[in-house]
Amino acid sequence: MPEKVKKLYEGKAKVVYETEEPDKLLLYFKDTTTAFDGVKKAELKGKGSLNNTISSLIFEILHRYGIKTHYIQKLSDNEMLVWKAERFPVEVVVRNFAAGSVVKRLGFKEGQRFKEPLVEFFYKSDELHDPLICESHIELMELAPTETIPLMKETALKVNEILSGFFKEHGITLVDFKLEFGKLPDGSVGIVDEISPDSMRLWDSETGEKLDKDRFRFDLGDLLEGYREILKRIS
Length: 235
Fold this sequence. Notes:
Blueprint: E1 4-10, E2 14-19, E3 24-29, E4 32-35, E5 40-43, H1 47-64, E6 71-74, E7 79-83, E8 86-97, H2 101-106, E9 113-123, E10 132-133, H3 135-140, H4 148-169, E11 172-183, E12 189-192, E13 200-204, H5 214-217, H6 223-234
Antiparallel strand pairs: 1-2, 2-3, 3-7, 4-5, 6-7, 8-9, 8-11, 9-10, 11-12, 11-13
């Protein structure tokens, strides 16, 4: 098992460590849960393990479809080994149904299905509260190489197709999700960070019950119960 050499960064949900192999990092998934830019915060024992396990399963599914990511393997309950990547400060959000900020911004009714998946870009900046941006902003601000912009959008839509079908088979509706991208050690561009209920909206297909982080954001029920239900269905 790779050894931790030095802590590089600690965020709201994960700690990133260098390993003895310079092109590989170790991610430690914390039990900390935050919402609204960290204004709401809690420690929920077992949450990190659930996110690590769910994210690992999703990465493995994507790999089977040839989607490039930084994921190498799940090491333990809370630890994941990944390729070191030069992360772009851009979040790519794919929405199949209206929920969250798009409801407030554009007046859609929550749960309204879009005719086609909606792809949005956000500037990853805590200081600016992750503002909505367009492709021209990404080019102007040099947030990512110009040639990667269509690749990120194309990959996000392919991931949406794969995961929408996968979750549907397990009685779950994929409402929306966020991806981050970066340049991997071999020079290719792939998905980085995590793909978990922290970064997706997942609703029960029959009842509409929210199984994701909105349970914590809006006090809709036990967060861990929702995450455990997702893991039980997809395992």
